[in-house]
Specification:
By secondary structure, the chain is α/β, with parallel strands linked by helices. It has a domain of 117 residues: Glutaredoxin. The protein is 32% helix and 17% strand. Strands 3-2-1-4-5 form a five-stranded mixed sheet. The termini are far apart.
Length: 187
């Protein structure tokens, strides 16, 4: 061996890459805590807070609760969302058929241009509101469009995620059960 060559460390003096028992237990405990906090929770109800202040066509905030009836469908959609464009005509047709003093449908266009959304929906007597920054949608737990929330007595009791065929008798029956007994928390 030359005088300027460095000696090779022996295995006993090399730093260990293994965790000791105490560090292993700590790492497992941290991993379990992170999983408990961030793991998706299937089957649990959403923590919706119905309400908020979407804007009207003039740009003024309006309390969403002003539109609530005994049973209210709050429908989040957008003209830039292809499934929404497919769904809206059947929702509008159904809403015109079933509208009453007890049952209301409120359309909330998310991150959309009011003029474009208004022209797409056309002339309707349904409330058309706008949620430019998803604030109201997120209060309901909405993350994707389209999504419709059934609100009874101020609480979200059912949610339809994705495009729904509002002419489907099974879908209509699900809504009618709430409209038939609006004071019941779970028909």
């Amino acid at each position: 061996m030359s005088a300027d060559a460095e000696p090779t460390p022996s295995p006993a003096s090399a730093p260990s890459r293994r965790l000791g028992p105490a560090r292993l237990v700590l790492a497992l405990a941290l991993a379990a805590a992170a999983a408990a906090l961030f793991w998706p929770r299937g089957g649990e109800p959403r923590r919706a807070r119905p309400g908020g202040y979407p804007i009207d066509a003039t740009g003024r905030p309006q309390p969403l609760a002003r539109e609530f009836r005994e049973v209210t469908l709050v429908h989040f959609w957008a003209t830039w969302c292809p499934p929404c464009l497919t769904e809206i005509p059947s929702l509008l047709a159904w809403a015109r058929e079933v509208r009453s003093d007890r049952l209301a449908v409120v359309l909330v266009a998310v991150a959309d241009e009011p003029g474009i959304a208004g022209r797409f929906v056309g002339s309707t007597d349904l409330p058309l509101l706008f949620d430019p920054s998803w604030d109201v949608a997120h209060r309901f737990g909405t993350e994707k469009l389209p999504e419709t929330h059934v609100v009874v007595g101020g609480d979200v009791v059912e949610t339809f995620v994705g495009a729904t065929d509002w002419s489907d008798p099974a879908v209509r029956a699900r809504i009618q059960k709430w409209a038939a007994s609006p004071n019941s928390p779970s028909p």
